[in-house]
Amino acid sequence: MNHDDLRIWSKRAADWAHDYHAGLRDRPVRAPLVPGAISRQLPSVPPEAPEPMEAIFADFERIVPPGLTHWQHPRFFAYFPANASPASMLAEQLANAIAAQGMLWQTSPAVTEIEQVMIDWLRQSLGLPEGFTGTIHDSATTATLSAILTMREQALDWAGLSDGLSSQPRLRLYASAETHSSVDKATRIAGIGQANLVKISTDTSLSMRPEALDAAITADLAAGFRPIGVVLCAGGTSVGAFDRMADCIAVAKSHGLPVHVDAAWAGSAMICPEFRPLWDGVEGADSIVFNPHKWLGAQFDCAVQFLRDPTPQVKTLGLRPTYLETAGREEVVNFNEWTVPLGRRFRALKLWFTLRAYGLEGLRARVRNHVTWARELAAALAQLQGVSIVTHPSLSLFTFALHDDAATEALLTRINDDGRVYLTQTRHQGAYVIRVQVGQFDCTQDDVSMVEQVVREFL
Ligand code: PLP
What we know:
The protein has about 450 residues and is α/β, with parallel strands linked by helices. The chain has helices at about 5-20, 55-65, 85-100, 110-125, 140-155, 160-165, 180-190, 210-220, 245-255, 310-315, 350-380, 405-420, 445-459; strands spanning about 135, 170-175, 195-200, 225-235, 260, 285-290, 305, 390-395, 395-400, 425-430, 430-435. The protein is built from 13 helices and eleven strands. It has a domain at about 100-345: Aspartate Aminotransferase, domain 2 (3-Layer(aba) Sandwich). Helix 5 crosses helix 7 (about 180-190), helix 5 packs across helix 10 (about 310-315) and helix 8 (about 210-220) runs parallel beside helix 9 (about 245-255). The strands form two sheets. A seven-stranded mixed β-sheet has the order 1-7-6-5-4-2-3, sandwiched between helices. It has a four-stranded antiparallel β-sheet with strand order 8-9-11-10, covered by helices on one side. Pyridoxal-5'-phosphate (PLP) binds near residues 140, 182 and 265.
C-alpha cells in the first residue's frame, strides 16, 4: 500500500462511512454478541506476506460492523454520548493525514496555536471570564489527574516531586460521592491513597453540603493532616448531580485550597446561557474540565481543561531536557509541559471545524432539543403503570425504575436485547435504576419517543 493506493482507498472509506451512518437506524444499537465472537474470526498468527487491500477491506466489512456498539446511532441513550459530528470526522481525516506530533510549539506551530485559540473560543462559549487559559487532554481522567497532582505539589511546596511522599504528612482531598470514579483513580495514582479521598455528604439536591466540607477540613487540620484541594461535580455521571459551586468554592477558599471542577458531560450545555445557573460561581475555580467529545460533537478524544493560572500545573508536569528545548524561543507555549504524556495529537482541528461548521447557534439548538426531549420522555414514562421517575431530568439525564431491583434489571435486559434503543443502569441511594440520557448528535424527537414505545412493549 502506497500513497497512490491510499488515495483510492480513502475515497472508498469515505463512501463506506457515508453508507454506514445512513444505515445506522437499521442496526441494533448494541452488538448482540457473545464474548469471543469476533476474535474467533481472526487468524491466531500475523501474516508473513503482504495481503491485498481488497481482502483486508472485505474482512473489515464482514467482521467489524457486526461487532460494534454503534455510538453514533441516533438511538444511543446509554452512558454519555461520544458524539462525532461530520465536520469533526473530516478534521480527524486531515489530522490523520498530517500525523503531526504537537509536543512542542516548534514541532508544529499550527497545532499549538490553533489549540490556544480554540481554548479561548470555548472559554467565551461557556461564559467563563477572561484570564482562564487551558489545554486539550485525551480524557477528563487525565485532566483530573493533572489537577490533583498539581494540588498535591502545591500543598507540599513541590517537595513530592523531588523527595517522594514517604516522609510527607497525610494528604487529604475532598469530593462528594456523586463525582466520577476518575477522581478516585487520580487519587490512587497520585499516591494520595483512596482512604484520603474524603467523600463529603450531599443534601437533598445532591450537592455537597458546604458546612460538611468545612467541618471535614477543620477536623483534618486538627488531626495534623494536610488538605490539598476540593473536586466539585458539575453534572455527575450517575444521575447528573451538581455541587453548589459558589458555596463550596467559598469554603475551599476560606481554607486556602484550590478547586477543580469536573464538568466532563455538562460543560457542553453551558454554551446555552440559560443552563449556566447550574454552575453559578464556577469562575472561582482554579481548574475546570469538560469533554467536547461527549456532547459537543468534537469526537473522542478531546477533553478541555481550563486553568485560572497554568503556572502551578506546568511546574508540576513540565520537564525540559536539552532535547526538548526550543533555541531562542523560550516564550512559546509547549503544551507537553501542561499534560501527562509528552506526545500530543492535533485535537484542536476538530474543534475548529465543528465550531465553524455548526456555529454556536447550531450546537445550542441541539443541546436545547436534547434537554426538551428528555423532559418530555420522562413525563411520558411517568404515565406508564408501574414506572417511577427516580431522578428527574438534570439537563438531559434522568433515571427510572419499576417496583423492585430485579424487575428493573429484567426490563433493562429485554430493552437492550431488543436493540432498537440502548440504555444503561446505575445505582441511586441503593436502588438499581435505568439511566436515560439524550444527547446523540443526529437524534430526532422520534428517536427519543422510541424509548417510550419500547418500554411500554416490555413492561
Ligand atoms: N467525569 C465525568 C462526569 C464523566 O461522566 C466521565 C465519563 O463519562 C469522566 C469524568 C471520565 O471521562 P474520560 O473518559 O474523558 O476520562
